[in-house]
Specification:
Length: 159
């Protein structure tokens, strides 16, 4: 399974906004702190704004704010906002696939993969990821360098 750079950048940007919600953050600042190409992040923000996941404020005090409560935004919501369909196989939704002969059971596997990913990513919120990052900054258990959970633990998942 491949997660697009666009989805990865969008989730990281929203986690930054959720972690520092007291003020608007600039696209430049988020790009710098997350080591994301600025021009690419600008296009990601267009999609996020269109989906209502961020709002913007112009001017010298301007920047981006998270568009709604971070506890109500799942990673699946973000991925769908920037990439469209949650999971496709050669451009087709798993629920529309039909294979002949010996491979006829394979679409069931693809549907199960989609359901499992949707379950995990649908219950993992931006708020939970921001809280996990705050805990790891404070010395507690959390993601290790590279975003891999420390000590074999899974990222926090909250409904």
């Amino acid at each position: 399974m491949q997660i697009s750079a666009k989805a990865d950048y969008a989730v990281r940007a929203l986690v930054e906004l959720a972690a520092d919600s007291g003020r608007p953050l600039t696209c430049e600042g988020i790009a710098s702190s997350q080591d994301i190409p600025f021009r690419f992040l600008k296009s990601v923000f267009r999609d996020l704004r269109q989906a209502g996941l961020v709002r913007s404020q112009r001017g010298c005090e301007g920047g981006y704010w998270i568009g709604r409560d971070a506890t109500a935004i799942s990673v699946a919501d973000v991925m769908t906002a920037v990439d469209g369909e949650f999971l496709t196989l050669r451009g087709e939704r798993p629920d529309t696939l039909r294979y002949p002969g010996a491979a006829q059971g394979l679409p069931d596997l693809w549907r199960a993969v989609e359901a499992a990913a949707q379950s995990v990513l649908g219950r993992t919120t931006i708020a939970a990821l921001a809280a996990e990052g705050a805990r790891s900054d404070g010395g507690g258990p959390g993601p290790a360098p590279g975003g891999v959970p420390a000590h074999g633990s899974a990222p926090a998942v909250h409904a």
